[in-house]
């Protein structure tokens, strides 16, 4: 066989080698794929009714009802070109739907885990994390929040 044809004979082996060296999706990327737009909407619905409210109530801000501690824990996400040390940068991000979803996303990247031990890390776990907080997220969703949340998930 000429060298030319040998190249083609071995090409599939090289392809497999090259593909196996390609980076695998990170664990974070895999489980956060369940944190989709529907999930954000339903957390938002259950948290505040998801009106376009841009205010803070008893130190919980914006459509996802985010506290300053949660924001700090999530790595102080701010609006583009804003400065996390600026007074008001937390409120301005939390009160903006897009920016607030980035806060939630960072929080879930940090704490994402199978809160209800059903073998999946899905929207229900993210919602339990949102409500209960990262380190101890096992508490079942209850009350008005839970009924709004599950009704929202069913209707999407
Ligand atoms: C988004 O997440 C919800 C809740 O887990 C799920 O029901 C829905 O199928 C997902 N949608 C897509 C497009 O993946």
Describe this structure in words.
It comes from Anopheles sinensis. It catalyses: Hydrolysis of (1->4)-beta-linkages between N-acetylmuramic acid and N-acetyl-D-glucosamine residues in a peptidoglycan and between N-acetyl-D-glucosamine residues in chitodextrins. One of its GO terms (molecular function) is lysozyme activity. This is lysozyme. It is built from eight helices and three strands, in the order αααβββααααα. It has about 160 residues and is mainly α. The chain has one domain: Lysozyme (Orthogonal Bundle). The chain has a three-stranded antiparallel beta sheet. The chain is globular, with a radius of gyration of 21 Å. The chain starts with a helix and ends with a helix. Bound molecules: 2-acetamido-2-deoxy-beta-D-glucopyranose (NAG).
Would you kindly provide a brief summary of this structure?
The chain contains eight helices and three strands, in the order αααβββααααα. By secondary structure, the chain is mainly alpha-helical. The chain has a single domain, classed as Lysozyme (Orthogonal Bundle).
Helix-strand blueprint:
Elements: H1 3-21, H2 27-32, H3 37-48, E1 56-57, E2 60-61, E3 66-67, H4 68-73, H5 89-94, H6 97-111, H7 123-132, H8 143-155
Antiparallel strand pairs: 1-2, 2-3
Bound molecules: 2-acetamido-2-deoxy-beta-D-glucopyranose.
The site of 2-acetamido-2-deoxy-beta-D-glucopyranose (NAG) has 7 residues, from helix 3.
State the name of the first-level CATH class: Mainly Alpha
Task: State the share of residues found in helices, binned by percent.
Answer: 55-70%
CATH topology description? Lysozyme
Ligand names: 2-acetamido-2-deoxy-beta-D-glucopyranose
Rg, Cα atoms, Å: 21 Å
Strand content: under 5%
Main sheet overview: 3 strands, antiparallel
Low-confidence stretches: 16-31
The CATH architecture category equals: Orthogonal Bundle
User: Would you count the extended β strands for me?
Assistant: 3
Termini, distance in Å?
60 Å
Kindly report the spatial arrangement of strands forming the biggest sheet: 1-2-3
**Outline:** globular
How many distinct folded domains? 1
The number of helical elements comes to: 8
Overall pLDDT: 85
Structural class: mainly alpha
Q: State the order of secondary-structure elements, H for helix, E for strand.
A: HHHEEEHHHHH
